[in-house]
Every structure is written in C-alpha cells, then in structure tokens.
Amino acid sequence: MRRISRITVAGAATASLALALSACGSTSTSGSSDSKGDKGLAIAYDVGGKGDQSFNDAAYAGLEQAKKEFGYQTADVEPTEGETDADKEQRLVSLAKQGHNPVIGVGYAYAAAVKGAAEKFPDTTFGIVDDATINTKNVADLVFNEEQASYLAGVAAAKTSKSKVVGFVGGVDIPLIHKFQAGFAQGVKDTDPKVKVLSQYLTQTAEEGGFASPDKGKTAAEGQIEKKADVVYAAAGLSGQGVIEAAATQKVWAIGVDSDQYQQEALAKYKDSILTSAMKDVAKAVYNLAKSVEDGKPETGIVRGDLKTGEVSLSNSNPKFADDAELQAAIKTAKEKIISGEIKVKSS
Fold first, then answer.
1. Pairing state between β 301-305 and 139-144
2. What is the pLDDT of residues 237-289, one digit of tens each?
3. Mean pLDDT computed over every residue of the chain
4. For residue 119, what pLDDT band results from cuts at 50, 70 and 90?
5. Domain 7-144+282-305 adopts which CATH fold?
C-alpha cells in the first residue's frame, strides 16, 4: 500500500468523516485498523443506493474486493433525496480530505461533482462510472459499451419469445439508457424481424424516481405483458426489481441488467423467471481503478469496457438459458461478429 503517515489520526479521521458526511448522505466505513494509515478506496452511490441488486451493488462488490486484497479501510456513502451538485461535490471533497484514494462517484449524475472535487485535490485520483465528459488529468471515466450486451439480450429475447412481442423498460429517458434500448432493439430485429419491441421509459429525470421505484417498473411491465410481451428487459436500476416481479407473477421471462440478477439474494423468489442478465462489470472497473492507484500507475481518461475485454456480457446462471444449445450458438455467433466489427451495434 502507499505508505502515508497518518498512523496517529486514523481513528479520529474515521469519526470526523462520519460527521462531515452526515449532512450529505449516510456513510459506512469498514476494513482493517490499517496501521499504515492510508484509507484507500471510497465510493459514493448513485440514486437507489446500496441494495439495488444491480448497479450500485456491483460497485460495492468492487470496493469489497479491493478492501480484502489491499487491507483498505473503505467508505461507501449513500445519496440523499433532492441533493444538489454542490452536495455531491462536498461528499467527494470530504472523502478526499480524510485520505481516501481513489474516490469514485457511481453514476453520471456525479459528473460536475467529480470535476469540481478533482480540481480541489489534484493529488487524489477520482473516478466516475458511466460518464465520459470529464477532461481532467486525475479522473478516470469508467464507461462501457452497454449496447453490445443489450444486443445479445435482444438475440436471447427474440429466440425465446413465443408471442413475437418483447418489452424494454428504461428507468430514465436519457442517452445512457438509450444505449440499452438501441442495442436490445437491434439484436431483436437482426434475429427475427417479425418480433415487435415495446419500449417505455419510466420518467424523464432521475429525480422523478425512474431508477428507484419498483412500483413504476412493475406497472410498466404489466402494461407490456398485457400487450402480449413474453420477455421483458429492464435497464432501470432498483425499478427493475418491479419488472422482474411482474414477469414472475405473469409467468413470462425477465432479463436483468448490470449484475447477474439470477444470483441476487433479494430476487431469489423470482429467479426462475430471470432468463439472463445483460451485465457490465462495474465491480471490475472499480477494483481496477483502486489497483492502479495501489500500483502507483493511476488510470486516467476514458477507460472503456466492452465485449472484447469481457466487461460487458450475458450471464449464464439460469440452467434453462445455459443449456439451450440453439440459443447459446446464436449468442456466440452474434458476440463474435460484434467483436470482429462485422456487426456495428447502435447506441441510439
């Protein structure tokens, strides 16, 4: 680890961190007593917070891996309702002041906050997940080709559907989620042009709860199922749990997102209805940034994960999906063509 001399203030720093952050989100700290005094990685969650069984929980898994491997004393901070960019920036500044390095904002909403905090702490490495707009030398923009995994999800949906109708539920009507919808729709149409894709966004802004309202997701999915959709793909954060519940209740298939939702404990009672998940390895991206700082060669600039690097993929946890030879062959062919460039996947 980086041997920064903070031995005598480690305990006090942890206490002051909790106090400093109490006004802008709850914090949990964990790890060893860390006699070297360097706290290492900290993350600040996106809307929905820890426990979304998706995007934020994937980031937490990366934090846990780094803590275990490097003996970090870590911090993970929850968002608060109605917070401003200034609140987010203060959260990141407080983490940096306490000696955390790197400090990662989980989600595009942290763009302005990460930029501001990075300018104030040029010797700290910052990261942001799902944003590629920051041009600062001490910031890593951790982004993914979500449309590629979504294309494969579209292949799976088209090959699985009996009704020739499938659905897409997006959390918020923004360019990031458009990538999921575009890739999915293209994968469906390239596989079977006769399959109809129903698409719906839950809200226009994140503040309206599009990523944090399972009830909204459930209602949207129920509407699509009433229109004969028998496979529904959700890219909606915590709201996706409602989509999965609706699919299970109505005995149709759901496709999860970001994490392998078939494996999520909170969704265990619905897992037999989760065909697969279009995953992006946020955990790996978070861990890799921490490791790069640990190794003294911090990642900066745009760091992209795609099918070729293995950082976007489809899960194979459901045996009904994994053991379907015809379906697996179709997905393998599509993946190879995307990696080779024969298939150009749309992002909007």
1. parallel
2. 999 999 999 999 999 999 999 989 999 988 999 999 999 999 999 999 999 99
3. 89
4. very high
5. Rossmann fold (3.40.50)
User: CB–CB of 125/141 below 8 Å?
Assistant: no
37-51, 57-71, 193-207, 213-227: which has the minimum mean pLDDT?
37-51
Q: Which of 295, 290, 258 is nearest to 274 (CA)?
A: 258
Q: Does the fold of domain 146-280+318-340 match that of domain 7-144+282-305? A: yes
Q: What's the number of CA atoms in the CB half-sphere (13 Å) around residue 82?
A: 1
For residue 158, with 0-12 CB atoms within 10 Å meaning exposed, 13-18 middle and 19 or more buried, which class applies? buried
As a whole number of angstroms, the distance between CA 310 and CA 77 comes to: 28
Question: Given this model, what pLDDT does residue 73 score?
Answer: 86
Q: CA 216, CA 265: separation in Å to the nearest integer?
A: 22
Overall CATH class of domain 146-280+318-340: alpha beta
Residues near 255 by beta carbon (within 8 Å), at least 6 away in sequence: 153, 156, 157, 231, 232, 233, 234, 274, 275, 276, 277, 278
Give dist(CA 260, CA 262) in Å, integer.
6
Q: What is the 3-state secondary structure (H, E, C) of the chain?
A: CCCCCCHHHHHHHHHHHHHHHHHHCCEEEEECCCCCCCCEEEEECCCCCCCCCCHHHHHHHHHHHHHHHHCCEEEEECCCCCCCHHHHHHHHHHHHHCCEEEEEEECHHHHHHHHHHHHHCCCCCEEEECCCCCCCCCEEEEEECHHHHHHHHHHHHHHHCCCCEEEEEEEECCHHHHHHHHHHHHHHHHHCCCCEEEEEEEECCHHHCCCCCHHHHHHHHHHHHHCCCCEEEEECHHHHHHHHHHHHHCCCEEEEEECCHHHCHHHHHHHHHEEEEEEECHHHHHHHHHHHHHCCCCCCEEEEECCCCCCEEECCCCHHHHCCHHHHHHHHHHHHHHHHCCCCCCCC
Alpha-carbon Rg for the chain in angstroms = 20
* Annotated domain spans of the chain: 7-144+282-305, 146-280+318-340
Cβ-contact 70, 294 below 8 angstroms:
yes
